Structure of A-type ATP synthase subunit E:
Amino acid sequence: MSLDTVVEDVRDEARARAEDIREAAESEADEIVAEAEADAERIREERLAEVDRQIDQEREQTLSSAKLEAKQERLGARRDVLEDVYDDVEAAIEGLDGDRRRELTETLLDATLAEFDDDEDVAVYTHTEDVDLVEELVEDRNAVVDGEIDCLGGVVAESDTSRVRVNNTFDSILESVWDDELKNISERLFDQ
């Protein structure tokens, strides 16, 4: 075996070893690249998913805001309609006259005076235009018209003896009925 052969064998062995190292390095590099590409793909998918979540969240928020705004507008419109109805009822009550007004006023006066003892002197207050009517209705009773109040009609009565004050005005009756029946009124108006 000559020196040339030995050198050639060493070179072949070195080349083979270099080839093995190069292949191992390429394989490792391929693994690193594949891992990096997989990481990049995972990060890209996570970011896309996050963007999709944000888009969905913003869409839901926008939709919720629009629904809330629409609901508030509907409620505002309903409130306006209910106020108009209330105003119309007030106007109808204020427009009562003749026998119907007398009948209602007398009924309210009777209910009011029933709250006081028979021997109590009762001061009665009423709507400006009803003073003559109420004076006529309190004749021969333990009551006297003592003044006017700002109301649609009906009476307010009080007694110094018992410190009782009874409000049976059309206004107070309307408010009471309105409060008690608001849900039913709303359902009838808006078919809920």
Q: What stands out?
A: The helical segments are 3-94, 98-113, 131-138, 170-190. Residues 97-190 form a domain with the hypothetical protein PF0899 fold fold (CATH 3.30.2320.30). The two ends are 109 Å apart (CA to CA). The chain has two domains: 1-94, 97-190.
